[in-house]
Write the structure tokens for this entry.
Amino acid sequence: MGQELENWDAVIIGAGPAGLRAAEELGAAGHRTLIVDAKPSVARKFLMAGKSGLNLTKDEPRSMLLSHYGAAADWLAPMIAEFDAAEVMDWATGLGSTLFTGTTGRVFPSEMKASPLLRAWLARLDGYGVERRTRWRWLGWQGDALQFDTPDGLRQVTAGATVLAMGGASWARLGSDGRWAETLAADAVPLAPFQPANAGLLIPWSDHMAQHFGAPLKGIALCAGAVRTRGEAVISRQGLEGGGVYMVCAAVREGAALHMDLLPDLSLDQVIARLTRPRGKSSLSTHLRKVLKLTPPRLAVMQEFARPLPAEPETLARLVKAVPIRHAGLRPMDEAISTAGGVQARAVDSGLMLHARSGVFCAGEMLDWEAPTGGYLLTACLATGRWAGRSALDYLAGSYATDAATA
């Protein structure tokens, strides 16, 4: 290659929240640490998420926080226990951010942007002597050395410890393209197939819905299988989007039927009672608007999926409380906010080190877990990054104890 082989104490591959948090642990301990990223700049997905208000975490009890990680909650528990919502908030304020908590418990920087926090974070890493290189795409291993495609050609680097934090397989233009999966599969690392998470629903609307594109559906509940959630949705040209939809995404992906409760604050009996009021000469649609206070978007959704509407009050009330939402599945994976799948729990030990590669740790969305939006994604990325970073510290110190698989 014509260039001397570089050697570092630690190399972090992927400069998103998980990778930066791992680098922070290693840099603070005085280790020569290098962060590399395939894109021209770091934390692109983090910055994009912050454009609509950077939701750092959810201020709620740890048990409730963990309940949003589904089947992965058990093995994520020790990591989140050491870096839960309170720890995330302390960390962010330590970087100079002023935080506020919304009425739903979501925590944001007062600037509502990611860029000020990122600048302070990178300045901290610079102070630790952590070096960053961009446009370095990881190609796997050449013997024990990490190999990269760089603007200066192929480069090889050796590391005492490596943290892989390259994200999942959504928003490839921002860096999370999942191409690393082929490299790990060749090393017989157990992987779960990538699937879209926090994705919108594809619905082939009829023409009469066009006037409602962009309209919010407020005050609704969605139910898919055992999951029932309150949350807002938005009618888009492609279907339904928004936080309420993302909460039921996993259940829908697994085949559960989806229903929408248009009046979750009223019981079935209360809806029946209202519908039995005299209708007079009013049309059924007018009657529904008057007695149930249904907004035009909610009424349009009901008509879209249940025309002709039944006139009998009890049957109509049951429909109002459970409109069947027919759809064509989830939006494409690259349009999803996050992905399920990746490095399975059984592929790593309790310190997140790969069984197949000593000294190589995984963090963030590379791991096979998923969570809805609302602060849960970023919390787990930070928590697993910190955990992997601290495990790498123990490995470099010669005090790391391997154990059995975590699943």
Notes: The chain has 14 helices and 20 strands.
